[in-house]
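Reviewers of the previous submission asked for a worked example of the structure-prediction workflow described in the proposal, so we include one complete record here. The input consisted solely of the amino acid sequence. No template or homolog information was supplied to the procedure at any stage.
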Amino acid sequence: VKVLVVDDDPLVWRSLKVLLSREADLHVVGTAGDGARALEACEKSRPDAVLMDIRMPGMDGIEATRRIKERWPAVRVLILTTFQDDESIHRALQAGADGYLLKSTPSAGMAERLRALASGTSVVDTRVLRQLGAPSRAPLEGLTPRENDVAELVAQGCSNREIAEQLFISEGTARNILSVVLDKLGLRDRTQLAIRFWKRPF
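From that input alone, the workflow returned the following C-alpha cells.
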C-alpha cells in the first residue's frame, strides 16, 4: 500500500513515516505540508491512500481532499486530525473523505486502519460518530421508515443492542434490519453505512 502523509507539522509526518516504515506492506511514498503540495505529490507518486490533516496553511485538507477525489477517485483519503468539531467532520465527509480519525488514536492500530482503508473499508473513529448527534437529512432512498431509523442510529455509532433499546425491538431484529439495509444499499459494513448517511446533503 503506497501512502502519502500530509501534515504541516514536521514532527507528525516524521513520526508517521517512522511508524509506517516498520510495516512490510506499507510504503510512505511522499510527504506534504499543505494541500497544494499534496496534489503535486499525488500527481507524482499516485498513492493508494492519503493521511490528510485538516488545518494547514494555504489550501487546507478539506479542499485538498475534494480535489484529490475529483481527479483520482480511487485514491483513499483518511483524515487524521486533532479537530473533532461537527463542522470539520461534516465538511470532510462531504468532500469525499473515506475515513476520519483523531490524532489521539493509538498508533498501534494505524497500520491496520490503513490496510482496511486501502481494501475499500471506510474508517471512522467511534468517538466521532457518537459526537455527530441526530442527523437532519432526508431519508436514505429505497429504505423503509424503520430501516431509516436503524441507519440513523448506526450513523450515530450505536451498537445493535443500543439500537434495539431505542427502537423497542429485539437485538436480533435490529441485526436483521441492519443486514437488509446493507444489502439494499450495496454496502459491506456499518461504517460504510455511517459514512453514506453523513455524506448526504443537509
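The longest helix spans residues 171-185. We consider this example representative of the routine output the project will generate in years two and three.
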